[in-house]
Specification:
mainly alpha, two-stranded parallel sheet, 2 strands, about 5% strand
């Protein structure tokens, strides 16, 4: 999957559509694999009507919490699965604050950190 690496000052919502187009087909059920998810769940940071319209045009139902509303929708109540790996990656100071100007060096450090995290998990379970 080739997703472009962006700076830390970019708003996350601007990268939703490139991420969805770079997502590989979703396998698991019999038949043709899905090319896109049926629903996109997101928090209040993604609350922009422009991107809601673009998602609907692609056939994806946006389930995005509105700003200034209560937590009645259930979004934001549970911790998302991705928060644990991001917390683990913050163990590595060079990934917590990006000092590298070159994308290839930053991606190499990211892969190395993921390898170290997996190695530590495997050691704990196997030994």
């Amino acid at each position: 999957m080739a997703v472009s690496l962006t700076g830390g000052h970019r708003n996350d919502v601007t990268q939703v559509l490139p991420l969805l187009t770079a997502t590989p087909p979703i396998r698991g059920r019999a038949g043709r694999p899905w090319r896109r998810p049926p629903v996109l769940h997101a928090d209040r940071g993604y609350d922009h009507d422009k991107y809601r319209r673009l998602l609907r045009a692609k056939g994806i139902r946006p389930q995005i919490a509105r700003r200034g509303t209560g937590h009645g929708s259930g979004l934001g109540v549970h911790r998302w699965v991705v928060e644990q790996p991001l917390a683990l990656l913050h163990w590595f100071g060079r990934l917590r604050i990006r000092w590298e100007r070159r994308n290839d060096i930053h991606e190499a450090l990211l892969m190395l950190a993921c390898d170290i995290i997996c190695w530590r998990r495997l050691q704990r379970t196997l030994c």
